[in-house]
C-alpha cells in the first residue's frame, strides 16, 4: 500500500473554503449553471492563495456541485444520480452486501413508484413509456441495447411517480444491477417475458389501477430475479 502522510491539520483550509462555497451553492438552486468567480477573485475574497481555491473547487467537482470547462472557468452543476450510485456501490462492496439485498430495495421502490404513477402519470408520459418498450422489442437480440432500454424504461417509470427522490433512487439501484440484468437476459425467453410484463404495467397505469400496477411490477421483478439466479447458477456450473 502506498505510504500515507498522517501529519495533517485538523481541518485543511481548502476544505473550509469548499464548505463555504457549498453552502452558498445549496442556498439558492436558481444559481444552477451560473459561472463562479475566477480563482483569482475567489482567492482575494477569501484571503487565501489560488492553489487553495483550486483544491476547494476540485473537492466541489468531486461532489458533483461544480463542473470545470476548459478556457471558460467553473460552473455550478446539479449532482447527477451517478454520484449516489457510486457512493452506494462503494458501500455495497465494502460491506459485502449481496445482490438479493439490493434487489429487495429495488422491488420496494418500484412498487411505490408504480402505484404513484398510476395516479399521476399523464397520457403523453405513458405514451413515451410505451415507445421505450416498443424500441426494446426492436432491439430484442441486442443484449447491450436491450439492457440500456430496460434501465431507461424503469427509470422513466420511477419519474412518472412525480416524486423526484424516487426517480433518483431507482436510477441508482437499477444502474447498480446492470450486470445482473445483462446476465438474466441471456436466458431464452426472458426478452419476450420482460416486454410482455412492461405492456401489462403500462396497461395498469392507463386504467389508473394502483393495485394492478403493484401486482404486475412485483411479478415482473420477482421473475427477473429468478432468471438471474438460474443464469448465475448455470454460469457457475460451466466454470467448474
UniProtKB/TrEMBL annotation:
CDD domains hit by this protein: WHTH_GntR
HTH gntR-type domain sequence ranges: 11-79
Keyword DNA-binding tagged: yes
UniProt-recorded Gene Ontology molecular function terms: DNA binding; DNA-binding transcription factor activity
PROSITE patterns referenced in this protein's UniProt entry, alphabetically: HTH_GNTR
Coiled-coil segments on the chain, per record: 119-146
Keywords linked to the UniProt accession: Coiled coil, DNA-binding, Transcription, Transcription regulation
Family matches, as PANTHER family: TRANSCRIPTIONAL REGULATOR, GNTR FAMILY, UXU OPERON TRANSCRIPTIONAL REGULATOR
Protein name: FadR family transcriptional regulator
Organism: Paenibacillus thalictri
Amino acid at each position: 500500500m502506498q505510504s500515507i502522510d498522517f501529519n495533517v491539520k485538523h481541518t485543511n483550509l481548502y476544505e473550509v473554503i469548499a464548505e463555504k462555497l457549498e453552502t452558498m451553492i445549496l442556498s439558492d438552486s436558481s444559481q444552477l449553471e451560473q459561472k463562479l468567480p475566477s480563482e483569482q477573485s475567489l482567492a482575494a475574497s477569501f484571503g487565501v492563495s489560488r492553489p487553495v481555491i483550486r483544491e476547494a473547487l476540485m473537492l466541489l467537482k468531486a461532489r458533483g456541485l461544480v463542473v470545470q470547462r476548459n478556457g471558460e472557468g467553473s460552473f455550478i452543476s446539479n449532482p447527477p444520480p451517478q454520484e449516489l450510485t457510486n457512493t452506494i456501490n462503494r458501500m455495497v462492496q465494502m460491506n459485502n452486501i449481496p445482490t438479493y439485498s439490493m434487489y429487495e430495495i429495488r422491488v420496494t421502490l418500484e412498487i411505490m413508484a408504480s402505484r404513484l404513477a398510476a395516479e399521476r402519470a399523464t397520457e403523453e408520459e405513458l405514451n413515451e413509456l410505451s415507445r421505450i418498450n416498443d424500441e426494446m422489442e426492436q432491439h430484442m437480440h441486442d443484449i447491450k441495447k436491450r439492457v440500456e432500454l430496460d434501465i431507461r424504461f424503469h427509470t422513466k417509470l420511477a419519474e412518472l411517480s412525480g416524486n423526484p427522490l424516487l426517480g433518483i433512487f431507482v436510477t441508482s439501484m437499477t444502474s447498480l444491477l446492470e450486470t445482473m440484468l445483462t446476465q438474466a437476459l441471456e436466458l431464452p425467453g426472458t426478452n419476450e417475458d420482460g416486454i410482455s410484463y412492461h405492456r401489462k404495467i403500462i396497461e395498469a397505469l392507463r386504467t389508473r389501477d394502483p393495485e394492478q400496477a403493484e401486482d404486475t411490477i412485483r411479478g415482473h421483478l420477482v421473475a427477473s430475479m429468478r432468471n438471474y439466479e438460474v443464469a448465475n447458477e448455470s454460469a457457475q456450473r460451466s466454470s467448474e
